[in-house]
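note to self: dont lose this again. the chain is below, predicted strucutre after it. 75 aa total, dont forget to put it in the shared folder this time
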Amino acid sequence: MGRHRNVTTAEFVIVNVVFKDGTRRSNCKVPRTALRGYADEEDIRRAIEEQERNISEMSGQAPRPIASIVRVKER
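---
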């Protein structure tokens, strides 16, 4: 069996992202250090857009525009 990294959810905010083309990315991690407050959706959007830019640079495809972001409830 492989090893699992011990990452606590206290370090990250977990969100589901739906893009304007209808695709979905589940359980995206946004570092809590990137947030100024618990309910600051603008910071979450900014962090996800940054992740998308990094992915698009590596893949050579254009970044996908975000339609909605939904925070996953903590367990």
